[in-house]
């Protein structure tokens, strides 16, 4: 049983307990209208995921949270993510329960992955990439985000197409690269010429119509449309 299931059951149990308390008060002659409102609020609250607050640096827990609290850039990203996830939660209130549960599960899985960054050779870069990537994921899923056109490249293996979507409105600019059934989020990097994007294990460099790609160890050269 995963933590999401435990969390949902815990909140459901809390709602039942609150509702039981309301019924008990009813038997003692309290205001029925007020009781009904309280019960409705309790049940409604359990129907949507709740956004975790930003890291509390007064009570930093573990190596990664301690690392975050020592770095203003990471603190800022943590606060941005808390806000962006809250926005996603608000947008999902009218979605099916499975969609809301998937959103909560994805966030908890992300946090577990972020906390594993203490194992990385460069923990700071690992945490930085984790926040940037999750922010882009949430922004892409936001219906208010403009979806750029998909660029199809001419590559050596036409059976395994390579495409890209560039989100230049993000800070830093990002791109979603897809090679066959695999996708990766990469970020703009400084370069002397052309356009370069990268993240751990993935590199993209476009120069004069030629695109050099290293997709998790698979290297190939494509041309722009």
Mean pLDDT, rounded to whole units?
83
H-E order: HHHHHHEEEEEEEE
> In which range does the helix fraction lie?
40-55%
> Main beta sheet: strand number and arrangement?
8 strands, antiparallel
First-residue to last-residue Cα separation: 48 Å
Strand tally, please?
A: 8
- Structurally, how many domains make up the residues? 3
**Coarse shape:** globular
In what order do the strands lie side by side in the largest sheet? 1-2-3-4-5-6-7-8
Structure annotation, total helices = 6
Flag low-confidence runs.
1-47
C-alpha-based Rg, rounded: 23 Å
Structural class: alpha+beta
Strand content: 15-25%
Please give a structural write-up.
- There is one protein chain.
- This protein has about 220 residues and is α+β, with helices and mostly antiparallel strands.
- The protein folds into three domains: about 1-45; about 60-145; about 150-225, Lipocalin (Beta Barrel).
- The chain contains six helices and eight strands, in the order H-H-H-H-H-H-E-E-E-E-E-E-E-E.
- The chain has helices spanning about 5-25, 30-45, 60-70, 70-90, 95-115, 125-140; strands at about 150, 160-165, 175-180, 180-190, 195-200, 200-205, 210-215, 220-225.
- The protein has an eight-stranded antiparallel sheet, covered by helices on one side.
- Helix 1 (about 5-25) packs antiparallel against helix 2 (about 30-45), helix 4 (about 70-90) packs parallel to helix 6 (about 125-140) and helix 5 packs antiparallel against helix 6 (about 125-140).
- It is globular.
- Residues about 1-45 have low confidence and may be disordered.
- It comes from Mycolicibacterium komossense.
- InterPro entries: Lysozyme_Inhibitor_LprI, MliC, MliC_sf.
- Keywords: Lipoprotein, Membrane, Palmitate, Signal.
């Amino acid at each position: 049983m995963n933590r999401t299931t435990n969390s949902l059951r815990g909140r459901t149990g809390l709602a039942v307990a609150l509702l039981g308390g309301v019924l008990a008060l009813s038997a003692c002659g309290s205001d029925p209208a007020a009781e009904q409102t309280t019960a409705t609020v309790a049940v409604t609250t359990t129907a949507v995921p709740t956004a975790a607050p930003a890291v509390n640096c007064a009570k930093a827990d573990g190596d990664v949270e301690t690392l975050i609290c020592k770095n203003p850039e990471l603190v800022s990203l943590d606060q941005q993510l808390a806000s962006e996830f809250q926005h996603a939660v608000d947008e999902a209130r009218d979605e099916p329960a499975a969609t809301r549960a998937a959103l909560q599960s994805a966030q908890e899985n992300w946090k577990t992955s972020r906390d594993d960054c203490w194992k990385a050779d460069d923990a700071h870069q690992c945490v930085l990439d984790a926040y940037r990537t999750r922010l882009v994921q949430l922004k892409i899923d936001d219906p208010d985000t403009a979806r750029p056109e998909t660029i199809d490249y001419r590559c050596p293996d036409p059976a395994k197409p390579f495409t890209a979507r560039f989100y230049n409105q993000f800070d830093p600019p990002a791109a979603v690269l897809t090679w066959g059934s695999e996708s990766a989020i990469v970020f703009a990097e400084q370069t002397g010429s052309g356009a370069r994007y990268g993240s751990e294990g993935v590199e993209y460099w476009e120069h004069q119509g030629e695109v050099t790609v290293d997709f998790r160890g698979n290297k190939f050269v494509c041309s722009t449309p």
